Amino acid sequence: MRFGLHVGRLVATAVLLGWLPAAAVLPSLVALAVVVGVLAALVARKTVRYADLRRAVWGG
């Protein structure tokens, strides 16, 4: 398996790094909710993007 920095990961990293100053002053639950949202969006993007490949590998 190859490891690399793909566009989705790069965008998620930039968003989270940009969010860091605001997260320091906001309530922790709000900061955590944004982090979870960004990571969920990244997982959803990968799920949709590689659905055909998974279907081909696993059959179905």
Concise account of the structure shown:
The chain is 82% helix and 0% strand. With 60 residues, it is an all-alpha fold. The longest helix has 22 residues, at 28-49.
Please give a structural write-up:
The protein has 60 residues and is an all-alpha fold. It is built from 3 helices and no strands. It has helices at 7-25, 28-49, 51-58. The mean pLDDT is 90.
> How many β-strands, per DSSP?
0
Radius of gyration: 15 Å
Termini separation comes to: 23 Å
For the biggest sheet, the summary is:
none
Helix content: over 70%
Taking pLDDT < 50 over at least 5 consecutive residues as the criterion, the unreliable ranges are none
The proportion of residues in beta strands is under 5%
Topology of helices and strands:
Blueprint: H1 7-25, H2 28-49, H3 51-58
Helix pairs in contact: 1-2
